[in-house]
Design brief:
mainly beta; 3 helices; 6-blade_b-propeller_TolB-like; periplasm; 32 strands; globular; cell cycle; TolB_N; 5-stranded antiparallel β-sheet
């Protein structure tokens, strides 16, 4: 068996972004190419990355630069009449200045109809980190318009599988949300499953079969240090960090049946949270940090259940089909997302926890592993496209989607990182 830790500086083939569907209700916004003073690093311009970020959210429709009547770089150069003629609701302008090994960005966002400045700020980064600077600006623009924090500076963890000559290689990777700057963190000729982020965004927990059986590891991304925390007889699966980062929910069958346990990470002490003859698995903490969702077949087939506390009785959440699994709640306690089977196809659906209304969100047919963005506005999941496994991101309210296929092999098991302030 082979498992190799990869240094954080090692790059992998990036995911490729493909916009597959736009939203008719997207808000028109003009991201004017930023003026530049001094030598800028090669590669994508900061303003083009911001434009792409806003497009990916599904909530905005940026104007192509070649359709702009002028290219202002500061507020006093913005003529609102021109932007109204172009049908724009908002306009973003800015200036980039190189100062030694740093790039400083000054940017302003305007409401065109109100002729009002919504945002004026300065941010900087090293010359080698301008993508992070661009994602930061995207986050600020998104929040200024929607009132919701942006998630463009967060990360994706996922597993790629490449087959060659009858052999398989699994790679745990971390990238930006647009698939750029992908880095391999672990590779193995045995499966890697279920990556889950710590709330500080500094660690991943996952399942690895590198010893010939499933075991759960916690991987510190900055150092590469790994700790095997669960290697009991039988099943060790589906880790999920608690909101305070001190414990894990996991599924163990060490006592003969698959049950949900809580592990204190420091002491490794275990507390059994379910006790039923059925299979209980795939736990996920709810927004309170006191209760959790899980999948159980105690009603005759896989369904989503919720316990409001460790001692509470489970309450069944899903009823819309004979198969509902892999629950992933949002951070506000409004929805839970899951894999839903209907007419032999597997989709991603959600249930409103207040109204109990169920909505099917995807039109693809082999969907799995949903993960909600930390601001609750986007959802990533794995599906099939042209025979390959790809990741697809959709706006949770529908109408927009983009896919992230690997340049080589399949990609699966996505996990969206938290927003780290």
């Amino acid at each position: 068996m082979l498992a190799v830790m990869i240094g954080s500086s090692t790059a992998s083939a990036e995911l490729l972004i493909r916009i597959t569907e736009g939203a008719d209700s997207a808000i028109p916004v003009a991201v004017v190419p930023f003026a530049e003073t001094g030598e800028m690093p090669a590669g994508d311009q900061i303003s083009s990355i911001v434009r792409d970020d806003l497009t990916m959210s599904g909530e905005f429709r940026p104007l192509a630069p070649e359709k702009m009547l002028s290219l202002p770089s500061k507020g006093e150069e913005v003529y609102f009449r021109d932007w109204r003629l172009l049908g724009q609701r908002y306009v973003l302008v800015g200036q980039l200045t190189r100062m030694g090994d740093k790039i400083e960005a000054r940017y302003e966002l305007f409401d065109v109809n109100r002729e009002e400045r919504l945002l004026g700020a300065t941010a900087s980064s090293s010359v080698n980190n301008t993508r992070s600077l661009a994602h930061h600006i995207s986050d600020k623009v998104y929040e200024a318009i929607t009132g919701v924090p942006g998630a463009f500076s967060t990360k994706l963890a996922y597993v790629t599988l490449q087959r060659s000559g009858g052999e398989s290689m699994y790679r745990l990777q971390v990238s930006d949300v647009d698939g750029k700057r992908a880095r391999v963190r672990l590779e193995s000729d045995e499966p890697i499953l279920s990556p889950a982020w710590s709330p500080d965004g500094e660690k991943l927990a996952y399942v690895s079969f590198e010893t010939g059986k499933p075991a759960i590891y916690i991987h510190e991304l900055s150092s590469g240090n790994r700790t095997r925390v669960a290697d009991f007889p039988g099943l060790n699966s589906a880790p999920a960090f608690s909101p305070d980062g001190r414990s894990l929910l996991l599924t163990l069958s060490k006592d003969g049946n698959a049950e949900i346990y809580k592990m204190d990470i420091q002491s490794r002490s275990l507390k059994r949270l379910t006790n039923h003859w059925s299979i209980d698995t795939e736990p996920a903490w709810d927004h309170t940090g006191e209760g959790f969702f899980f999948t159980s077949d105690r009603s005759g087939g896989p369904q989503i259940y919720h316990k409001s506390s460790e001692e509470a009785e489970p309450r069944r959440i899903t009823f819309g089909s004979r198969y509902n699994a892999r629950p992933r709640p949002d951070n506000d306690g409004k929805y839970v997302y899951y894999v839903h089977q209907r007419d032999k196809a597997f989709h991603i659906a959600r249930t409103n926890l207040q109204t109990e209304e169920e909505t099917i969100l995807t039109r693809t047919e082999s969907d799995e592993s949903p993960s909600v963005s930390p601001n609750g506005r986007m959802l990533i999941y794995a599906t099939k496209q042209d025979g390959n496994s790809v990741l697809t991101v959709i706006a949770v309210d529908g109408g927009a989607a983009y896919s992230l296929p690997a340049s080589e092999g399949d990609v699966r098991e996505p996990a969206w990182s938290p927003i780290v302030r």
